[in-house]
Protein 1
Amino acid sequence: MDEQPTGTPATGPRGPWHGGPWGRAAVRGVEARFGGGLGGGAEGTPGGLPWRSTLAVAVFVSVGTGFAGRGQLDRVALDGLGRVLLLLGAALLLLRHRHPVPVVFGVSAVTLAYLAAGYPYGPVFVTVALACFAAVVHGHRRAAWWALGLLWAGHVVAAHWLYGYLPPDGDGPAPWGQELPVAAFVVAILAASELARVRREQWARERAERAAAERRRADAERLRIARELHDVLAHSLSVINVQAGVGLALLDSDPGQARSALTTIKAASKEALGEVRQVLDTLRAPGDAPRAPAPGLDRLPELVEQAAAAGLAVRTQTEGRRRRLPPGTELAAFRIVQEALTNVVRHSGSRAALVVLAYRPGALDLRIDDEGPATGGDAGGSGNGLAGMRERAAALGGTIEAGTRPDGGFRVRAHLPVGPEESV
C-alpha cells in the first residue's frame, strides 16, 4: 500500500470514506433505502425471510463497489473472490431477524476479510450497518458494539501493523489520521441503531396504548348497553310481574279487571321490546344514527302511567324553571327515576311515591321518595339497580345518595351537573 498524497485527484484520501460519494451515500441512505427490512418480520409475511431488501442490498453493494473501485488505484482490483465476499456479507442479512447476533459478527468478519484482502472501500459498509441495526433493534446492543469494535480494531491492526503481509504488494502503513473518520463512522452506525431502537419501542408503546384505549372504549360500550338493557327490562318486567299476579288473582272473580291487567302487560312488553330493539340496533350498525330518540324526562308521564298500572300512585313535582338538558343528562335522569320507581314496586310496601325534579343553576337534582316500609321478601332482580344509577351519575360527574329515611321510608337523591340550556 504505497502512500499517496492526500490531495491526489486520481485517488483521493485513503480509508473507508475512499470511493467518494458511494461511501457517504451508503451511510446517509441506509435506513431510508432499506429501513423496511429492519423491523421484526420480513416483507409481506410475518416470520419470513427479508428477501427483497436483502437482494436490493446485494445489488447495491456489488454495483456500487465496482464503481467506487475505479478511483482507488492503490487497492486490489475487484475480482471473483472479492465479489463472493460482498455477496456472502449480503446473504447473511437474510437471517438478521432470526439470528441477529451471529449475523452481526459474521458480517463484520466477512467485511474485515474483504478489507484485509486489499479490496476497494465503498458500500461494503452498508451490510455492516444493516446487521448492526438488526442486532440493536432486537435488543442485542452489546453484540452490535462488540462486533463493530472488533471490526474497527481489526482494521487498525491490518492497516498499521500487518500491511506488509497483506495485499497489495509493496503497501505501506495507513496514516493515523484516517482512524478519526473510521471512529466517526462506527459511532454514527451505533447512534443510528440506537435511534431506530428507541423509535421502535415508542411505536410499540403507542400501539399498546391504542389497543388498551380500544379495549377501554369497548368495555365502556358493553357496560352502557348492559346498563340500558337492565333498566329497560327490570322496569318492564316488574310491571308485567305485578300485573300478571293481579290478572291471575282476579281471573275468576273479576274478568274485567283481569283483562285490564293483560292489556297493561301487552303495552309494557311492547314498549320493552321497542327499547331493547333500539339498544341492539347500536350493535348492528355502530356508525348509524339511532332510529328513535333516546328517552328523556318528557316521557316521565309514561312512567307514572306504568307505575299506576302496577298499583303505585306517583306524584311529580317540579322546582325551578324547566329547561332543555343535554341528551345524555335527559337519558340518565329518566333511567334513574325509572330504576327508583322499579325498586319501589319491587321492594316497598308503600303504594305511593313522590318524584321531585329540581332545576338548579348548572345542575339537575332528583329526589324519589316512598313511604315504606320494605317488604323484606325476594322480589327478584339482579341487585345492580343502585350500582347502575351511581354509574350513570358518575359518568356525568354527578352523585347518587340512597338510604332509609328516619320514618322508615326510602329516599334516592341524584345530583347531575348540566350546562345552561334554553327554557321550555
Protein 2
Amino acid sequence: MFDSIAGLFSFITWPVSWVIVQFHSLYGAIFGPDTGWAWGLSIVSLVVLIRICLIPLFVKQIKSTRNMQVLQPKMKAIQERYKNDKARQSEEMMKLYKETGTNPLSSCLPIIAQSPFFFALYHVLAGIANGTKIGAINQPLLDSARHAHIFGAPLAVKFLDSSDKAAALGATLTDVRIVAGIMIIMMSASQFYTQRQLMTKNVDVTVKTPYMQQQKMLMYVFPLVFMGMGVNFPVGVLVYWLTTNVWTMGQQMYVINQNPTPGSKAQDAFLKRLLKTATTHEQVRSNRKRKMIAAIVSKGPDRNDNERKFITALAKAGLAPQADGSLVKSDTIAAENGAGGAVRRQQPKRQSKSQRQSSTAVGTQTVEPADDEPVTTSLEKEPTQSTPQPSGSTMQAAGSTKQTGQPKQNAQAKSGQQGQSTRSKASGKPAAARSGQAKSGQRKGQQRPKHPSKK
C-alpha cells in the first residue's frame, strides 16, 4: 500500500534524495561516508530543514485551532437551531467561518504539506533496500547506504521483514526488531505527550465543548495508529518520523510557554512570570509581551480570571497598564489597594453574653466597700433600715407600700445590692466582675428581698 502511495509523489523524490546526498557529503567527512551516523544525521537534517520551511503553516495551525475552540459554542448553537435544515446549517457555518477568518483545514496544513516529503523519503529508502538507484543517489551512494547501520539495524529494513532480508544487508532480525521496536515506542510516546500537553495546559478550561472531547479521543487513538503503522516503516523512515515528532513536541512547548491560549493553565503560568518581571523592573521591554498586555487591557470587563488576577496584582504593586502595553507607576493605585501602608478599618470583636452583661454592670458605678465599712451604692440616696413587723400587720405594711410606692423600690434595690456586694466580698472578687453571673439554681438579675416576717 505504501509503495503505491509513494509512487504518486515520485515527482518530489529527486529533490528529497538530492538534499540527503548533500547532507551526507557533509557528515561523511566527519563520521565516515559508510557509517550509520552519516546517513542517519542526513535524514534528521532533512526533517529539520522541512520543518523550518513549515513554520508559517504551523503558526496558521495554532491560530486555527484556537479559533475553532472559541467558535465551538456558536457552532453548537447553529447546529441546534438548524438541526432540521442541513443546507441552512452549512450556510450559517460557512458564514461564521468567513466572519471570523477561520479555516477548518488550517489545523491539518502541516501534516498535509509534510506528507509528500514523507512518502518521497519512503520511496528512496525502498529503492535502497531493493538495490535500485533512485533520484540523486548513484551506485556508489547506493552501496554505501545499504551497508549503513543505526545501532546494528540497516536503514532499509522493516520490523516485519524476514531474517533473510536482514541477513542480506548484514544484520540480524533480532537487532532490527529491537531497534525498530524502541523507535516505534518512542514515536508513539512523543505523539501522545504532544497531544496531552495541548489538552492539559493550552485549553481554556472554562469552555466545555465537543471539540475537547474529540481531542481527548485523538490523544489516545493517534499513538495506537502510529504504532500499527510503524511496523511497516523502514528504520530510516522511523528515524524521520521520530525526529519530526520530537520537533513538533518542542515547538509546541515553546508556543504554549510564550503564547498560551487565553483562559488556560499555561496562560496563568505565563502571566505569573510576566508579573514577576514587571514588578521587578517596573516595565516590560519585550514588544511581544507589550502587545499581550495591550490585548488584555482592551478586553475590559471581558477578561478571564487569569487576566483579572494579573491586572489586580499590577494595581497592588502600584503599576497601571496602558492601552499600548506599557506600565506607568501610580502611587494612587497603590494607596487604594493598601500597598501604600494605609490603615484598614477593622471590625470590632464579637463579645459573649457574659462579657456584655459585665460591661453593663460596670456602667452602674458599683463601689467595692472596705472591710469595716457598711455597703453603700449609688442608688442609696438615704440610708434606711427596714424594721421587722409582727405577722399580724403584714397586710397593713403591704397597703402602706402600695400607697407610697417609692419606699418599696428603695428597699428592693438596697437589699439586692447589699446581697450582691456581700457575695463579691466573700469570694474576693470585684462586684463588677460578678454582677452579671448568678449562682447555680438561682434566677439571674436582682433577687426579690424576703419579707421581714420570713427572716
